[in-house]
Amino acid sequence: MLPSDEMRARPSRRRSRFGRLVLGISLAALLVACTDTSSPRPPTPSAQPGSTATATAPNGSASPTAPSASASTAVVSVPLAVAVDVRDKRDGVSIAAARALIAGAIVPCGIGELTLAGQPVALPKIACQAVEGIEAKVHGNAKAVALLPPGLVTARVKVLRVGGADLFGPPSVRKLAYPLVGTATGLPDAWTAYDVNDVRTLVSTGDTCPDRGPANMAIKKGKGWPWILGGGTARYTGTHMDTRFSGPTGNGWPVVEAVRTGDTGKVRALISDADITVNDFECPMLAKFVFHSKGTIFNVDPKVAPLLASGGVDVVTLGSNHITDAGTTGVKQTLAYLDANKIKHVGAGLNLAQALAPAVVDVRGLRFAFVGWDDIAGSAAASATHAGAATLSDANVKASLAAARAQADVVFAMPQWGWPEYHAGFTKQQLAQRTEFFADGADHVLGSGTHWAAAISITPDAQGADHFVISSHGNFLFGQDWSRQTMEGVVVELTFNGKQLVQARLHPYVVLDQAQPNLVDPLTDGRYVLDQVWKVSQLP
């Protein structure tokens, strides 16, 4: 038997079709440019010219380059990203490890001398490569490493931090001096340009309904709500089978055993260190909330609203199958508590117009819009005169995305979808809905609802821009301890260079005590959930 989040069969609703680097600057000037706090400029273009010619690379090898009318013949200093396959589980490498990687890295023709942490580094001995083919050599190759100028980085590769610094990391990391720099001659300006002010990060967390397990630890056990979001790191000590439910083979579900390893507050630091943080918030907050130790009707302590604010949450989607568990009163009070804590909301409202209205966040002149809907039966549907959730219908999708598109540069859809629950792959219906979201104006999709960390797709459009989708993040503040799949999840970190998505990174965690997410090492204990996601993902 597969347990439902509702612990009862709920039929699905009708499913519809649904940087500028100045020429000739020195390394010192580069580092100053990377910490510039002036107003943002327009996004860096990323289209690559199609013609090629032959030139002699700085290391003496004859290899093709891609000349452009915008290419400069002057020598420029340019930071070089260490790019690997997007599924690579490493967060970063030390300076010493980076030095070893450089020796076998793929380098675009036109890159000259290299310095790492201020020390000269020999260029790789292999011949330089034409830029058009480098991404293909890295994508899907677990051993390939490339050194890419910032304008060549896309979401189809993963950039590793170098000595803790990261060109495309969150605000606290972007301000660090980046250690790997090369000189470039004859490369198009768009490929070598980099301005830290054009980089923005977004963090997204998974299913959140802090009744039951979280409320038990925060209130009944006296840990307090700050403890719930104060998790650090954890290490697995074993696994066992939980037989409360039959599982896929009739023998139950695997459950992880884990201990905390310190780093208190690391989860809050991760989700708050972003230009925008968004969350799937499924349940109503009530002044007269009632703790539930079991069951499938929920309500939440209003102290959770300032808890989310303390974690840097800017936007939540309320479009879920539980948001009307406390009726119109619950919806009304939830909106009021969120408003009081300056958290924007989408996906539910006191009427349909409010439920469909996008939330818009301006980050240094670039506007991000969010809309949400519910495709799982359970909540009352919002109408012109009644409170409820925005259902995932053709009309609602088109109306909300059109409104978002009119107000923003980057548009996110945040659906609760994927019935039946507890699976990692895309359903056929989700694939059809994804197509409809894109056709109606969405750029990216942050999904939830299956209680598992689930499939990702990265789809380039006709202009070469990447569109990101995650089916589900897994549980975040939602206690289900009967399987490792419902205990483990991923925090999604997306990075934009201008309005172009250039990075999609996953941070694995495990929920302990049915209440508190703690980060796990992606190279060891976190491998299971990362493999669960990537094995069913759709990548170009």
Describe this structure in words.
This protein has 540 residues and is an alpha/beta fold. The chain has 2 domains: 27-194, no CATH class; 200-534, 4-Layer Sandwich (Purple Acid Phosphatase, chain A, domain 2). It contains 15 helices and 28 strands. Strands 11, 14, 15, 16, 25, 26, 27 and 28 form an 8-stranded mixed beta sheet that branches. Strands 18-19-21-22-24-23 form a 6-stranded mixed beta sheet, with helices on one face. Strands 3-10-6-7 form a 4-stranded antiparallel beta sheet, covered by helices on one side. Strand 21, helix 13 (428-439) and strand 22 form a beta-alpha-beta unit. The protein is globular and about 70 Å long. The model is unreliable at 5-69 (pLDDT under 50).
Short characterization:
It is built from 15 helices and 28 strands.
Low-confidence stretches: 5-69
How much beta, percentage-wise? 25-35%
User: Rg from C-alpha positions?
Assistant: 24 Å
* Top CATH class of the largest domain: Alpha Beta
Structural class: alpha/beta
Q: What is the domain total for the residues?
A: 2
Oligomer: single chain
